Amino acid sequence: MTERDGGEPATARTIPPQAWQLDAASLSDANKALRVLPRELRPYTRGIRMVGRTVTVTASDDLVPVLAGLERCGAGDILVVDAGTTEHAVLGELFATEAIRRQMAGVVVYGLCRDTATLAQLPLPIYALGTIAQGVPELTACPRFSSPYASATSRFTPARS
């Protein structure tokens, strides 16, 4: 994740306006260390460029990190998601319309998306590996922990009975 000091997402205002005039090939030629999108990612909207700072998340087959990443994004940011699976979509119409509301510069999913007919009509650059109709499976039961549990992003302590 690229952020300004203080932990707030950076905005496109810090990117020189000349960057909007260059195509990806020219930028790549000018700076060999520049990371560009992998060729297997496909655009789901056409004719819209995206330039911005990135907020990155790893979903690991879980939608919560994607929601947290979306919440951290502001105007001009690009959300980059490593979905961790190709079993279901992690991006669809609801996420994309929230990204537009936040005035984000775009969304990149190294995974799958859905609602592609709608996504193609939105004024937001979206890239993904492919599509699938199935969304993230719902949690059918809350996990119960008998002792404290910690993940990379959360800590759970069992309630006292």
Rounded mean pLDDT score: 79
Q: Shape from CA axes?
A: globular
Proportion of residues in extended strands: 15-25%
Distance between the termini: 40 Å
State the main characteristics.
globular; two-stranded antiparallel sheet; 161 residues; Glucose Oxidase, domain 1; alpha/beta; 4 helices
Short structural summary:
By secondary structure, this protein is α/β, with parallel strands linked by helices. It has one domain (12-134): Glucose Oxidase, domain 1 (3-Layer(bba) Sandwich), CATH 3.50.30.40.
Account of the 3D structure:
- Residues 1-12, 139-147 and 150-154 have low confidence and may be disordered.
- It is globular, with a radius of gyration of 17 Å.
- The chain is an alpha/beta fold and 161 residues long.
- The protein starts with 23 loop residues before the first helix and ends in a 5-residue tail after the last strand.
- Helix content is 18%, strand content 22%.
- The longest helix has 9 residues, at 64-72.
- The chain has a single domain, classed as Glucose Oxidase, domain 1.
